[in-house]
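Proteins fold reproducibly. Next comes an illustrative record:
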Amino acid sequence: MPAMIVNSQLRYGIAKPFQNILATPKPNKLRASQRYITVQSSLHALSLHCGATTLNVPLSTSHVQSLAGAINGLLKTFAEKQKAEGPQRVDSVECKFSGDTNAGEIPHFELFCNPNAHSTAFDAKVLVTVHSVDGVRVVMEATLEQVRAGVKDALLASREKVA
């Protein structure tokens, strides 16, 4: 993300001409470049790795947190399913949200998993669907562990930006 590059360059004194970008002027006097950096710094890249494919999706902090909550709920569902004495039917987990395209987010993100189709969380497959502004639709199947790792990395990156 451009904001991270500018911030790291400023920290080490490489990009001194850009120091005025990170100053905090009054909101009505922001230049276009300042608005861009402010918007970009609130987004986090969710990287989903599946085999030889990597999908990078820009999401807001709230969307990453809601995705983490959905995955934690899915893991609890599998834990309850393991403890059950007999076969038990559980509801599918679906997490959908639409992003703000003006802020640089992806317009539509969807995660779907049917816990009934898998015996454990380690075997679980998740279907990830991403729609772009241009109408491109990417559908990817990944393991629950791969998606969980990507969300965990995005959450850690968001905490580092705040600190």
The beta strands are 43-50, 53-60, 93-97, 108-113, 125-131, 137-143.
